[in-house]
Design brief:
3 copies of one chain form a homotrimer. Chain A is mainly beta. Chain A is built from 1 helix and 20 strands. A 16-stranded antiparallel β-barrel of chain A has the order 1-2-3-4-5-6-7-10-11-12-13-16-17-18-19-20. Chain A has a 4-stranded antiparallel β-sheet with strand order 9-8-14-15, with no helix packed on it. Chain A is globular and about 55 Å long. Chains A and B meet through strand 1, strand 2, strand 3, strand 4 and strand 5 of A and strand 1, helix 1 and strand 2 of B.
Chain lengths: 366, 366, 366
């Protein structure tokens, strides 16, 4: 990368580099009397290792996360740049969908993450055309979710980083129960197209995404599912605005209107069908205050509505800022949310209460 | 690295280096209707870290493997070269036995692996005389298996990389049951001698191996066990031929004719006594196709017969090839097998069906 | 460190370095007939990874340990040197208390470790004034224990490296039971002051430590706890003498006289109130015997008495030596102990037997 033109000897860039992150987290919440009584809790979040690099033109990118309650591989893929513009990836890789790589600025992501439509990683093969002539394209075929699908040989199907459905909710099931009717997504086709336009200082990506696949109960096909989204991502000086409109549907043969999902060693539920809208605004401010080199202020808003199970909307609004200081990256988030996981609710909850969580996530990345 | 040519001082090679591997795996099998209905499954295999190197003449070699269902240390030993020819190793190290380091060319190893006689690692001390004057010798004393034996303080005795017996099967036990009568191997003596001969382009190692030790039930000695093998390993131009004939016997005082084994978070069974024969042929082909630098084609055949529990033979035949491309090493294996773990059977099964598994293991090693 | 005086360009020391340790352990004990019958056991101890360094003036220090029975983060904190003398640390960091960093020379630590008062790590913020003008000072506020306290989201509250209380023992509870009345420490203030004096070759640190915090049952405050200690740490030529006198008290509202503790995937008990005295003597001997560069001989003695639950004293005496050879550091310990965890007893046991354990811990550190 930094070679001068005079340099004739080839510089090997071969090798795999170790990186990682360590995070701890403070929270003060409206929905736990014990937490309030203790003036909040301070918890260990993750010990993360990353492996990244290339050997002989074939690249590797992998991340493993150690929590107090599970060990999970977030992604693990090999890649090869087979033309100037196209790369192929195989393994656990990110499903191309909507605003990329994140549809949010805060530590909690957007509401879409909790329905498996933001920063979702599955097992498959992905073709990525990089941005050129103002457009980019991702085409993926995902054999199954990152834990090998409905029959994956795993300790627990809930021990995963990114949300996926793990079953259909039958009448009488609790929303946090182990799934009585296991299901797994399989043979999913996924595509994402982005077109970049600019007017003076305003640069915008406009995009459309879609995915469709099957649902398997271990013996046979038990339904199918699909989702689509339109999004925009605009930068103007230090401002960033992300918009996204998303619809998804799980169509189970037995007509279930609610699905079981699993992640973070925990089973939860989502509606089988719903619509989501998100609006994310951020302002970045480079500074030089001792070790502090950057601030970002943001407001992220998301709504999941028109739920097929008749439950009330999920809403999450996060006002906060992040601080970069050396290897340290810290989020200060004030969250207000209804029926939102990690904020006192479930995406399939039916509460009319708005819960509050103040959160500080202290992360060190290298 | 930055020494000038004039510098005569010895180059310190001190330091521990991090390596590892990431693997994912595709399989299509005859024995799972669900797998066939989904046109196969794609699963995460391992996230592996290796530590290797030396500090002040004492060396370290260790490997830990993270799976979706367990975390296991494959080996972890310290070593010291106390003469030019002899090295001593202490810790979890490989039991010297038969073709070395592997009695196979494919991703599944040979049938011997599943009866604990290929790539087996236990806790002990090993003296290794390196090849010199055409002969080499390994002498080991293994205090117990890699999980501390019958009384080891572990989460599960089945959470291990290499197969060991964990109990005796009593009448009425199922072959996949948790062992009702726990046992552990202990105080095992092991030796392996190899003699190298060459005639023109043909180079052959001829070898003999033997091991013998006790079985402990937690309170007292409950039996003993032994195994022996003869092997040959020949190279002629790009061809490699491995032959091995092996016998083993677990002699439990209560006369059990079947043993419980544990590995990969799973309990299974083997006959208390059996004979094994393996034949492995391979052809290596260096190429330069884009990033691809080498191919190896192989056929590996193994048979376990004369089983003391009266069950039918275990047979496995694997035809396949491996592809080296940069850090990537991929196995394409077509397996036909009877009564074979990981191919729809148990080493103590009594099936007359031949099962089939087509498997692609995508590994990145660094 | 290796800069020449002429070098004027600043040398960046940025970057995070990977370190670690691998250990295996041999033991021969008086209290397990099975162990004696097998002439001892050899077990895997730990696979440890350390991350240490700084990026842009902010430092990181973290350690994760993989055992056969649990995965645990020992410490994980970020730090910043905000004046020449003061550093602030946030995350899982060591509670400043008594002899530092260890109140022992052997592999087992002192009896204080098992009551949570040696090498204890909790989640909080710590201000450390380094030694200057002959004094040093540590002031900490620990929000809760390293697993997030009584409501921490964890696999098991016993999966931790350093002992903490996890409950109060109710009448009828066994000393190894899962805690029926869960409790967690929270909002603990901690301080440690050390003053250094020297007379010729004799250098001594004299110190005083104290900590006090609350006990929470998940809903509300259920009591409080405190501890204090005086210590001295003297060096004279190759000799080292450590003395410490310690008192602690858990004052539960329901009057419990015994507490449940958890660590190493195991629940145990301690008296709610007790006194401890420790005396540690060591002699260091630099040598050059092949790869061996140092020996240390030691005797460590500890007594926990005046226990509130009326149980007999805990006593541990360890005579041993450690050997440094390259990356290898090996402890040879002969332990005699009464009512001591890991030596056949519980800190809340009532035995009058003295148990014996001979132990060799083979560690490789890098």
């Amino acid at each position: 990368a930094n070679e001068s033109a005079e340099q004739s000897a080839p510089v090997s860039e071969d090798g795999i580099k170790l990186g990682g992150a360590i995070r701890t987290n403070y929270s003060h919440t409206s929905y736990s009397d014990g937490n309030k009584d203790r003036t909040g809790d301070f918890a260990f979040d993750i010990f993360r290792l990353n492996l990244n690099g290339s050997i002989g033109d074939v690249l590797l990118n992998a991340e493993i996360r150690f929590f107090d309650y599970m060990t999970a591989v977030k992604y693990a893929y090999v890649g090869y740049q087979f033309t100037d513009d196209w790369q192929v990836q195989a393994g656990i890789t990110q499903v191309p969908f909507g605003n990329w790589p994140y549809n949010s600025h805060n530590w909690f992501f957007s509401t879409n993450y909790y329905i498996g439509l933001e920063d979702d990683h599955d097992l498959g093969i992905l073709f990525k055309r990089q941005l050129s002539d103002n457009w980019q394209l991702d085409l993926g075929f995902f054999k199954n979710d990152e834990l090998g699908g409905v029959d994956g040989y795993v300790g627990s199907r809930a021990d995963r980083y990114s949300y996926d459905i793990v079953g259909a909710r039958l009448p009488g099931d609790g929303i946090y129960d182990d799934p009585a009717q296991p299901l797994g997504e399989y043979n999913t086709l996924s595509g994402r197209f982005g077109y970049h336009v600019s007017q003076g200082e305003l640069k915008t990506e406009l995009g459309v995404s879609a995915l469709a696949g099957g649902l398997h109960n271990g013996q046979t096909r038990a339904g199918d599912y699909h989702a689509w989204a339109v999004h925009s991502n605009s930068h103007y000086h230090n401002w960033n605005l992300q918009l996204q409109y998303t619809k998804y549907q799980y169509d189970v043969d037995n007509g279930a209107d609610r699905m079981a999902v699993g992640a973070y060693a925990f089973y939860d539920s989502i509606a089988a069908e719903a619509t989501s809208a998100t609006v994310n605004l951020a302002y970045s401010m480079p500074v030089e205050w001792g070790p502090v080199t950057g601030l970002q202020f943001y407001n992220n808003y998301g709504l999941v509505y028109d739920k097929s199970d008749g439950s009330r909307d999920t809403m999450m609004n996060i006002t906060g800022f992040s601080v970069a200081a050396g290897g340290l990256f810290t989020y200060f988030d004030l969250v207000h949310a209804k029926n939102q996981p990690f904020v006192g609710g479930s995406a399939s909850g039916d509460s009319s209460e708005t819960e509050r969580r103040f959160n500080i996530n202290i992360g060190y990345y290298f």
